[in-house]
Amino acid sequence: MEDQEMQLKVRRVSDKFTESMYVLANEPSVALYRLQEHVRRSLPELVQHKTDMQSWEEQSQGAIYSVEYACSAVKSMTNSSLYFKNIDGLLRQAINMKEQISNSQGRRKRTMDSGMLKEGGEKHNSGM
């Protein structure tokens, strides 16, 4: 009987001890300590992620600006096709005028050369 009584007392003490440990393990201050420990371990990684995200955001904003700028440049180029057509027409006119000037100078030079030959021939013939 004493054995059973002793076992009962041991069981009660064991149960009370287990309950006390459970209460201590789940006490709010212990929970706050565990929370603090978790934050201390995970915070550096979170800070690194935040820094990476900010860097990626800056790079993305730069890329977006570049793409928008390129799009506006392309749009302005398509709008300027009229100006390029005008420039093309003016260049063609300038080339035609240059050819006309070259042709008229060539005729004038030939006329002057043939005139000088005639004059030179006359002078040469009259000098004899």
How many distinct helices? 3
Largest pleated sheet: none
Tally of distinct domains: 1
Q: Cα-atom Rg, whole angstroms?
A: 51 Å
Instruction: Name the average pLDDT.
Output: 85
Helix content: over 70%
From the helix content, strand content and strand pairing, which structural class follows? mainly alpha
Low-confidence stretches: none
> Tell me, what's the shape?
rod-shaped
Strand content: under 5%
Q: CA-to-CA gap between the ends?
A: 173 Å
How do the helices and strands follow one another from N- to C-terminus? HHH
Strand count:
0
Describe the structure.
By secondary structure, this protein is an all-alpha fold. It has one domain (13-110). Helix content is 95%, strand content 0%. It has 3 helices and no strands. It has helices at 2-25, 28-79, 81-126.
Topology (SSEs and partners):
Elements: H1 2-25, H2 28-79, H3 81-126
Main features:
128 residues
What is this entry, summarized?
The protein is built from three helices and no strands. The protein is mainly alpha-helical.
